[in-house]
């Protein structure tokens, strides 16, 4: 397939064909990730599945790490919940997203690999940092909103709150190798809310 221009002749608006090819490639890459794991997400595999030429893929994503970053970003945007303003429900719903990801084998393997390789491979370290920042973004927003509404202790550090909420799930699944249910998530949220209720 021939390469498409990234911009219109006037240098302004992005060519619609570029948007379509990028969307098709990301959809194919996301399907490969969920079916076969991160190792299977390659330019060749994405080109075969999407019909987008490899030249076009390499222009969008010069290397596999760049491709994986955008695939994971898109998957997280799909998975993330939309906060409703009901603190307990919002915390529970967002942690349920994480529970689902941790119990989905391809995504679980991706997380394990990022953690394992990050200390010795800078590219994987960047990807792990991206996973942490994007993965915890909505949970942090929910906590900050709860503090602003006076439903959580004003002295609570949102970043530590994210650790207290997400940390047990990640530890239990990735380190202890145990599964856990929705009940575990609900109990975790209730314990967190009791510990950080507003104080005079």
UniProtKB/TrEMBL annotation:
Keywords: DNA-binding, Transcription, Transcription regulation. Residues 42-61 bind DNA. The keyword RNA-binding does not apply. PROSITE patterns: HTH_TETR_2. This is DNA-binding transcriptional regulator, AcrR family. It comes from the Bacteria. One of its GO terms (molecular function) is transcription cis-regulatory region binding. InterPro entries: Homeodomain-like_sf, HTH-type_TetR-like_transc_reg, HTH_TetR, Tet_transcr_reg_TetR-rel_C_sf, TetR_C. It comes from Parafrankia irregularis. Residues 19-79 form the HTH tetR-type domain.
